[in-house]
Specification:
The complex is a heterodimer of chains A (243) and B (771). Chain A is α+β, with helices and mostly antiparallel strands and 243 residues long. Helices cover 25% and strands 30% of the residues of chain A. In chain A, the strands form three sheets. Chain A has a six-stranded mixed β-sheet with strand order 7-8-14-13-10-11, with no helix packed on it. In chain B, a hairpin with a 3-residue loop joins strand 5 and strand 6. Chain B folds into two domains: 135 residues, Uncharacterised protein PF12988, DUF3872 (Immunoglobulin-like), CATH 2.60.40.2410; 478 residues, Cytochrome C Oxidase, Chain A (Up-down Bundle). In chain B, the strands form two sheets. Chain B has a five-stranded antiparallel β-sheet with strand order 5-6-3-8-9, with no helix packed on it. Chain B has a four-stranded antiparallel β-sheet with strand order 1-2-7-4, with no helix packed on it. Classes of the chains: A alpha+beta (243), B alpha+beta (771).
Chain lengths: 243, 771
């Protein structure tokens, strides 16, 4: 797994276990019935439902069972919705809602973000956040650190063998950033592969994305996830993390 | 009469040729197509012919490993020696090694070079190119910018600048064959497939009755097929068209998989790849899946409800004949080298931008015709099912396949107008300059996303629900049981139909739309699991106490249960938004929808083909070939799509013409193992593609010399098994329609819960008389 986002990892692992349980239950049933109830050569089969051409066959139903497997998936999705709720509130935390990332940092203040909880309960909390800007245009990313100190945020360019010269965004470990994003032409979406997050950037419409650089986050490639034309696949950038 | 038909055919042929040729002439004007692997981060949206790029110093034929000094330059445009900056360049070469001579240029690896900041104030640059040591055709692609020097950014930095592109080729000492253009390969394969289809149909016509293989017999035969309003003939036409386009879409998928087999591949350019995945999606959904559904629906719905034909036979013929014309429009751009490159979703504002290919306009026009076709089809089926059911057949006594077609057409009928409106807006934006999606003029790109997905998500269910109907029929017949929970199956299908309209927002979780709407659609998307669960468990319970007969259609049905369940489970990951933010637009999504649309819809169709083929042709299919088809198809299918889940989680993005893995020397987006898995997926794709040849061979073989089929070979109950195989025309005598009996007579005559309530509230007839 290359994803370093604890929110993703916690939910992913839990969903995989649920998926395994559902698969084992369903496929065991399928395997059992498809062999146990197979027809055998030379054995006359019964016709319990009186199937005949031109006759609507006898009903084969059981209200209790049908209600049971209406309620069971419903309970499962209620539970899955519940466990997906807190990470959802965290990734879409409203700006200046002090619950998760506090308010914009004062000069010299640090986010001191930390991972709280574990498994599907894992979320990132910060004391405050820094604001920066991301602009997308065919087919290049532009990062603007605004007036942040260079140890918090800086930009440069680098050559990655396959993508050519790409912009590089340098962010600091333990800090939380709010990226205000806009497009100069069509829709794009920066996909921070290692952070496991993305959001569309639209022409003339500001969107935002939380970038939580927790301890252990490593350098990663940023791709464009929303199709934007000819060179969409090489509209890349690099995120470098320093401590 | 025959002269009239002949004239009509000539006019139709001339119109078709005109549609093919005329737009081809206007789809070339920019000449910007075929941008090579480097792409162009140029100043401005489109190339400008006022700027003239050139490369001097290149030989016609190179010597092995010789170093050449080359000069790249340009004239024209706003560049002026008085400007602070004059221009820049980007040179890409397919082979050999580029190197700068001075500080005005820099190299990015061996294949690419550009100007430096110091070289920004000139219009020519000198480089060296070392030729390859072997024999290869070498291609140079040069992009140049001619700039006016307003670098202060106040006026946009690049405003008023112009750019252009030049391609050049150098031959090796020993001439080697040019690589085939993928478009030529695609066009050739489509033409070859069409010719093979015609030869096959002609051969089948000949072998079924060699005595009548004369023009006198052939002309009325083909004329009957082209002008028929019989539901069975139109069903066959839909079926043949759907299978043909399934093959065409498959060929495009194979070319996409060749491109993705290894990292950094250049089999397709970005530009070509973008057109291929756009047309792959459009073809598979609109020209393969929908016609195949309509093929089975045309054939089976009237037969299942005991009707002589559809309610509106001429409308039915019109619905079909709109489709090939629409297909010609959709493909027109490709044949001109500038096909639609927007993805099947055609997101705004890209779809109305200057950078989208000119063929996009024809692609939109073709889809508008498909909207018309689908609307007419919807009216026809809803009317037929509502008013032409045989005596004795109530709503809750219809076969489940007919129910599935009713629900699919209701969904389509309610959703496709939104798509039609969106397409017309895009067409007007592109053709006469309206501004529905032009953001700078107040247009709203998210409006397209809403209109498209309001249709697009129900559309996915429109193509899967008929497969539910097929599976319900096949599993019950194969198990020799009545379907378990008939009524809950109907309610579950209807439930899926209703839910499909309130979940579409999950396609837009990252779009920036209202967080409240995103949250609501998260909840509703989760709800899809409920009716889906009911259906899967009902299918499994149907086998209980039965006597399962293993035929090829049974195998495909069991295969469907496996793959559709897996597709359903992977679908549950998306409404969990913290995960969706990573998985969105990744190969995990590609894996999920192929598990649903191929493992669900296509496997359902395969089951339907093997199940109803004896009824449609009067011949039994070869079971041995059928089993081989299932085994090869099922295994290769899973090998093809299962690894895509992992690739998506690793970060492989869809709609990217290539990908790069991390090596010891360079950082890429994916881990090293992704390269091996992609090769495995590509090989599996070819195996899956070719596994379908067993089905084609089976069809041809059995039509020519298959065993004759009885009226009811599998022991089904619905009316189609009452008629001869193949059925006569009209399918049932309108003056002597069949009457459905009910083995639940006592239940059928008892009032339901609502009926009992009304009975208690209302005065009985006896009491009324007494008063």
């Amino acid at each position: 797994m290359t994803i370093q986002n604890a929110l993703f990892d916690g939910l992913w692992d839990y969903y995989i276990w649920i998926s395994l349980a559902v698969s084992v239950f369903t496929f065991s049933w399928l395997y059992h019935h498809s062999f146990w109830y197979r027809s055998e050569e030379g054995v006359e089969h019964e016709n319990p439902d009186e199937i005949a051409v031109g006759v609507f066959p006898k009903h084969n139903d059981d209200m209790k069972l049908e209600v049971a497997w209406t309620v069971a998936p419903f309970l499962l999705i209620v539970w899955l919705t519940y466990i997906s709720w807190m990470p959802l509130a965290s990734v879409w935390a409203p700006i200046d809602d002090a619950d998760y990332h506090g308010f914009e940092c004062e000069e010299g203040q640090s986010s001191n973000n930390e991972l709280v909880g574990e498994g599907y309960n894992a979320i990132v909390e910060s004391e405050c956040y820094h604001v920066m800007e991301i602009t997308g245009k065919q087919w290049v990313w532009q990062f603007d650190c605004l007036d942040l100190a260079t140890d918090l945020c800086s930009t440069s360019s680098d050559t990655i063998e396959v993508y050519g010269t790409v912009p590089v965004l340098h962010l600091k470990e333990g800090e939380t950033y709010l990226a205000i994003m806009i497009s100069e032409d069509v829709t794009h979406a920066p996909w921070f592969l290692g952070l496991g997050t993305k959001e569309d950037v639209q022409y003339n419409v500001e969107t935002s994305l939380w970038l939580t650089i927790v301890e252990g986050t490593s350098d990663q490639v940023i791709l464009c996830a929303e199709y934007c034309g000819d060179a969409h696949s090489i509209m890349a950038a690099k995120l470098e993390i320093h401590s | 009469m025959r002269t009239k038909i002949g004239r009509s055919l000539v006019v139709l042929a001339v119109l078709s040729v005109a549609m093919l040729i005329a737009p081809a002439a206007v789809s070339y004007p920019t000449g910007v197509n075929g941008v090579a692997q480097t792409g162009c981060n140029c100043h401005g949206a489109v190339a400008n012919s006022d700027v003239a790029p050139s490369i001097s110093g290149l030989p016609d034929q190179y010597n092995y490993s010789e170093e050449y000094e080359i000069v790249v330059s340009f004239t024209g445009g706003p560049a002026n020696a008085a400007n602070s900056n004059q221009g820049g360049f980007n040179l890409w070469v397919s082979d050999g090694e580029l190197a700068p001579i001075d500080a005005t240029a820099q190299a990015y690896g061996a294949n690419e070079a550009s100007h430096t900041e110091a070289g920004n104030d000139q219009t020519s640059w000198t480089l060296t190119w070392t030729a390859p040591s072997g024999d290869r055709n070498v291609e140079f692609i040069l992009h140049v910018n001619s700039v006016n020097g307003n670098e202060d950014g106040n006026n946009g930095g690049s405003s008023g600048d112009l750019w252009n592109k030049l391609s050049a080729k150098v031959s090796p000492p020993i001439l080697v064959l040019e690589e085939a253009d993928p478009f030529v390969v695609l066009s050739t394969l489509i033409v070859v497939s069409a010719v093979l289809l015609i030869i096959t149909l002609t051969y089948v016509f000949y072998r079924t009755n060699p005595e009548s293989f004369t023009w006198e017999h052939f002309a009325p035969w083909i004329s009957e097929w082209l002008t028929s309003t019989d539901h069975k003939k139109i069903g066959t036409l839909y079926f043949v068209a759907g299978m043909f386009f399934l093959g065409v879409g498959g060929i495009m998928a194979m070319m996409i998989r060749i491109q993705l087999a290894v990292p950094g591949n250049d089999f397709l350019t970005q530009d070509q790849y973008n057109q291929f995945f756009t047309l792959h999606g459009t073809t598979m959904i609109f020209l393969a899946a929908m016609p195949l559904i309509n093929g089975f629906a045309n054939w089976m719905v009237p037969l299942q409800i005991g009707a002589p034909d559809l309610a509106l036979p001429r409308i039915n013929a019109m619905s079909f004949w709109l489709q090939p014309v629409a297909a010609l429009l959709i493909f027109t751009g490709v044949f001109s080298g500038s096909g639609a490159d927007t993805g099947w979703t055609g997101y705004a504002p890209y779809v109305v931008s200057e950078t989208a290919h000119l063929g996009t306009t024809m692609w939109v026009a073709g889809q508008i015709m498909l909207v018309a076709s689908s609307t007419l089809t919807g009216i026809n089926f809803l009317t037929t099912i509502a008013v032409m059911r045989a005596p004795g057949m109530g709503w809750l006594q219809m076969p489940l396949f007919t129910w599935s077609i009713l629900i699919a057409n209701l969904m389509l009928f309610l959703s496709i107008p939104a798509f039609g409106v969106g397409l017309i807006q895009v067409y007007l934006d592109r053709v006469i300059g309206t501004a529905f999606y032009d953001v700078s003029a107040g247009g709203d790109p998210l409006l397209w996303s809403h209109l498209f997905w309001y249709f697009g998500h129900p559309e996915v269910y429109v193509v899967i629900v008929p497969a539910f109907g097929v599976i319900s029929e096949v599993i019950a017949t194969s198990a020799r049981r009545s379907i378990f929970g008939y009524r809950s199956m109907v309610y579950a299908m209807a439930g899926i139909g209703v839910v499909s309209f309130i979940v579409y927002g999950h396609h837009m979780f990252t779009s920036g739309m209202s967080p409240t709407l995103r949250f609501v659609t998260m909840l509703t998307t989760m709800l899809v699991a409920v009716p889906t669960g009911i259906k899967i468990f009902n299918w499994l319970k149907t086998m209980h106490g039965g006597s399962l007969v293993y035929r090829t259609h049974t195998l495909w049905t069991l295969g469907f249960l496996v793959t559709f369940t897996l597709g359903g489970i992977s679908g549950m990951f998306f409404p969990s938004i913290a995960m969706d933010l990573h998985l969105h637009e990744s190969y995990f999504v590609v894996a999920h929808f192929h598990y649903v649309l191929v493992g669900g819809t296509v496997f359902g169709f395969y089951a339907a083909i093997y199940y109803w083929w004896p009824k449609m042709t009067g011949r039994m299919m070869d079971e041995r070939l059928g089993v081989i088809h299932f085994l090869t198809g099922f295994i290769s299918y899973n090998a093809l799509f299962w690894p895509m889940h992992r690739l998506g989680v690793w970060g492989m993005a869809r709609r990217h013409h290539t990908y790069f893995v991390t090596t010891e020397e360079a950082m890429g987006a994916l881990p090293m193992e992704a390269a091996g898995w992609n090769m495995f997926v590509s090989v599996s794709a070819f195996l899956f593609f070719f596994s379908n040849f067993f089905l084609i061979a089976n069809m041809i073989k059995t039509v020519i010399r298959g065993e004759k089929a009885p009226a009811d070979p599998w022991g089904g109950w619905s009316f189609e098994w009452m008629t001869a195989s193949p059925p006569p025309t009209p399918s049932f005598d309108p003056h002597n329609l069949p009457e459905l009996k009910d083995a639940n007579e006592h239940i059928a005559n008892e009032p339901g819960t609502l009926g009992k309530l009304f009975n208690r509230l209302m005065m009985s007839e006896d009491e009324e008389v007494a008063h």
